[in-house]
Design brief:
Blueprint lengths: L8 E6 L11 E2 L4 E13 L11 E16 L5 H9 E6 L5 E7 L10 E6 L4 E17 L5 E8 L3 E3 L18 E4 L2 E2 L3 E9 L2 E4 L10 E4 L3 E9 L4 H7 L6 E7 L6 E7 L2 E9 L6 E8 L16 E6 L8
Antiparallel strand pairs: 1-2, 1-7, 3-4, 4-9, 5-6, 6-21, 7-8, 8-9, 8-10, 8-13, 11-12, 11-17, 13-16, 14-15, 16-20, 17-18, 18-21, 19-20
């Protein structure tokens, strides 16, 4: 008998010991979930006097990849932001708490690991040792703020079904956002996106287990696109002169304990392409940008970072990391 898709849900929790699964402590509203265990199959192709090529397949290393996406909730987004950047400083004695995330540059530079719990009516599968490799955020004036996330983990295993509970915070509509380029408020931004990503390398050794020796996080990059109503040549000139203006994408609403915020700040956004478009009744400018590492957008671990992400919500210190 078929099983209902819409009874699925996704839980998450931080791990004390990377790779040791833990029960979900928070639940993320999602639109799509794409779990994929990656079993390496090793072919036995030793010739045995017959006109065939493959005699057997041997189980090799195994790990998993996980992707999911949905609308941005200012509290649950903190798991993905912290997971891809690594450095998190939280403050506040009561809601709203403020969380500032940047690239972790101390110790081994490795971000925290998490366990995802994926319930799909037939069973619940945990994906332990999970590290995020990508977080993309998109916005438009006529839609909701959305995200997509990708991660790598150890192989999944079944567990008991958790009891989900969800945030009462609403997702953010795109029109709430405020964009500033070069410190100047820019009301002409039609839509845009920002993607933070880093490679996660599956390190496999001869250590008596199919599981990876490590899931190793590499360097962080941030880049994106903007579509602008072309009022003048200012942003085209920023591209042509390699001006590298600052870029702020700021979503904030509510007051007092109910105040929430999602802010992306890039001190140096290098425009890598700018194209004039006349496909509509008004002229648009499409801009690609790369956020460059600098010493302003850093966290408590110092060094360099291309981006600083600030969240405000009712999540207390010590939850995300």
């Amino acid at each position: 008998m078929p099983q209902p898709t819409f009874q699925s849900f996704l839980g998450i929790a931080k791990e004390t010991t990377p790779g040791t699964p833990v029960a979900a402590t928070a639940f993320i509203p999602v639109k799509t979930m794409s779990p994929s265990d990656k079993l390496t199959l090793l072919d036995d192709q030793g010739m045995r006097g017959s006109m065939v090529s493959t005699y057997d397949r041997i189980s090799g290393p195994i790990w998993a990849e996980y992707g999911f996406d949905g609308d941005v909730f200012p509290d649950t987004l903190g798991w993905m932001v912290t997971g891809v950047l690594g450095d998190l400083a939280s403050s506040g004695a009561s809601a709203p708490y403020t969380h500032n995330a940047a690239v972790l540059n101390s110790g081994t530079g490795q971000p925290p690991s998490y366990t995802l719990s994926d319930y799909y009516t037939i069973n619940t599968r945990q994906f332990p040792g999970l590290r995020f490799s990508e977080l993309g955020i998109k916005f438009s004036g006529d839609g909701l703020l959305t995200y997509s996330a990708k991660a790598t983990s150890l192989a999944s295993a079944t567990t008991t079904k958790p009891t989900p509970s969800y945030t009462a915070v609403q997702p953010l509509p795109g029109w709430v956002g405020a964009v500033a380029i070069g410190g100047v408020a820019s009301a002409f931004v039609v839509d845009g996106e920002c993607t933070i990503k880093r490679p996660i390398t599956v390190v496999q050794t001869a250590d008596g287990t199919q599981a990876p020796y490590a899931l190793w996080a590499g360097p962080v990059e941030a880049s994106g696109k903007l579509t602008l109503v072309m009022e003048d040549d200012t942003q085209l000139t920023n591209y042509l002169t390699n001006a590298k203006p600052s870029l702020d994408i700021n979503y904030a609403q509510g007051a007092a304990a109910a105040a929430v915020q999602v802010k992306l700040h890039m001190t140096k956004a290098a425009f890598t392409n700018a194209e004039i478009s006349r496909g509509k009744d008004y002229i648009e400018l499409s801009v690609d940008y790369d956020a460059l590492a600098n010493t302003t957008d850093v966290g408590t671990s110092g060094g360099y970072s291309p981006i600083k992400v600030t969240l405000q919500n009712a999540v207390a210190s010590g939850i995300y990391k």
